[in-house]
Amino acid sequence: MTFRMPPEWAPHERTWMAWPGPNPTFTDEEELAAARAAWASVARAVRRFEPVTMVVGPDGAESARALLGPDVELAERELDDAWMRDIGPTFVVDGSELAAVDWVFNGWGGQDWARWEHDSEIARQVADLVGAPVLSSPLVNEGGAIHVDGEGTVLLTDTVQLGAGRNPEWTREQVEAEIHAKLGTTKAIWLPHGLTGDYGMYGTQGHVDIVAAFAAPGVVVVHSQQDPAHPDHERSRTYVDILSRQTDAKGRALEVVKVPAPTVLKDEDGDWVDYSYINHYLCNGGVVLCGFDDPNDEIAAGIFRRLFPERTVTLVDARTVFAGGGGIHCITQQQPKV
Questions:
Q1: Does the reported pTM lie above 0.90?
Q2: CA–CA separation, 209 vs 200, rounded Å?
């Protein structure tokens, strides 16, 4: 069989998420309550377009049901954290067959605050829940560290797949071979790093899904920090330059669509923010877009409406999710329809 990862805009069977529980990411009851409210807002937004299953820890079902209502399915499993994009399976298809890639998960490069005893098993458990065979990979990787166009091209970053905390002994060629074998891709486009804020306390050390994402074959949206005061100003110019000179697996020159970053530069602690509209989620008939109560929210929404004229664009406040270390794309994982 030759499995491939469909693009995110292909039809979904459902979306998988994971319910926040007590852990180092949410340090007290107030933060946990805020996180659960934020996750619930995303789940309800996605549920308007397709079924959602929320994986909940043994002590989370009551709070999940209260905030999610009856329309979101619950599946009880042990959890450490709540980032389903990274801990869940990467679903791939071959015709009418569905399979689940199980990457090695080690807490985003073995970060000292992270716990992954249970999260490292979630991909297999979700695969079991849907009856999909598991394709095990020896590569340390996460779902937020890849983005595909469905036609053979994948986006990666040097500081993730080649990072010292993940795959220190792998060569670029070995990483590409394993990625291509599992995703059915044939060409990898590498970016040198992620956004500055993604290297902070709860950062992923450079996930690509906050930097760049395919919007269609040959079309890629890119984070564009407009303010020279932010270190991501130069970083985003680098991404645009690299991608503008690239072709995809079909030989097409990439059309690069710059999406202006929110105007806010620092959080309340004085750290550079990595707020990004690129970390959106495509679901059946919809685009769930990160909102930041920012003047650029509507500018970003307008760009996505032009890119996806047949889809409804919904802005959901993502500031609480970003405070935990990710965005809307990071807490969702699509199961493609076969």
A1: yes
A2: 17
